[in-house]
Amino acid sequence: MSFLAPPTAKKRLPKEEIDPVYRRLRLQVFIGIFIGYAGYYLLRKNFSLAIPGLMEEGFTKGQLGLALSAVSIAYGISKFVMGIVSDRSNARIFLPLGLVLAAIINLLLGFIPYFTSSITTMFVMLFLVGWFQGMGWPPAGRTLVHWFSLNERGGKTAIWNVAHNVGGGIMAPIAVAGISLTSTYIISIKAFNGVFIFPALIAIIVAIISYILMRDTPQSEGLPSIEEYRNDYPNSSHETLEEELSVKEILFKYVLSNKWVWMIAIANVFVYFTRYGVLDWAPAYLNEVKGMDLSKTSWSYFLYEWAGIPGTLLCGWISDKFFRGRRGPAGVVFMLGVAVAVLVYWLNPAGHPLIDNIALIAIGFLIYGPVMLIGLQALDLVPKKAAGTAAGLTGLFGYLGGAVMANALLGFVVDAYSWDVGFTLIFISCILAAIVFAFTWNIRGQEQTK
Fold it and tell me: Which stretches make up the Major facilitator superfamily (MFS) profile domain (predicted)?
């Protein structure tokens, strides 16, 4: 695994070259992690769009929800484990590598019918997708804390975080186009397999572009630390904490002993249950209960994701300007708004698609702000060399506790009871997320790094 080792620091560039090189590389690196992470979302939730087709093959919602949960189980574990590896790796290699591996698994799902022939095989393949997906967030977080200093990181993280929505939003139209192209030109496989094939091909191209643009740290390019460059230090002693940390130091000195990291990890359980409870089941719910066909549900999926872009930016701005760097209050406000939008989406009777789409837009607009806030707090709460691990711990809770329940538990609940019971659980989750955010009301992450 030596090829993953972070590059050593290069000789410092001449003083007159530092500013133009820094400006160019900061923009270049940011674009690299933005499109690279957006590429991961081309491959994250394709299976949700394949669910209606698989149900026609005889699988139940409970079975398919169980298979879908494999992504969240693997991703939750991988985001933590690979976060530790990422903190000690070259981000420029680590992020594109995970994207290529996830694309390969999606191509296998698309081209080889055996891999969608049983719940067991689908679970195994989706577990692999989830594991490789865990290689995306940690290196992006590592890159953010090395190239952007504390007082600008909130805004930059909010902008970067909309990569979720860009990738997730364009995935649905691409996947639906893939269904059409597959049914027309690849007669040997089921049409719904196109949701895996075409997004994967595009993701491989994105991985190559991301590798070309990304760099690991400023020091590896002959530049000073970002704190020195911007004269923006996180503490009065001007410590930049650039030394590489051991796994033991990362885990026990900075992450597992920090009570606020644990608090936001718990909040993430409820945020992710809400996020994926609505998102993953939107095609099936809108098709089964609201009477929409797949082409219309894919656009609802698109609207949900892209509405998160302005919502995320607004949430980051509010937490910076109105609450002066405190993320908890913004989390409370946005999660209560999500609760209201979930009620409208759930209780709106069939035959009013405009209201359904407006409610989905509102949920998407509001839910990604809290998702971003938790990731941002994870970066602020620990030194930069432990950022991937802290983010990984919150992801472990969010995916194993929240997303898995949204996939497996919700599927079985709807099968056994009704969609009403499922949406009752989602609504309660919104309220619990707001309550946990309220416990962090007065916490500024940068004041809690030790």
Answer: 25-448
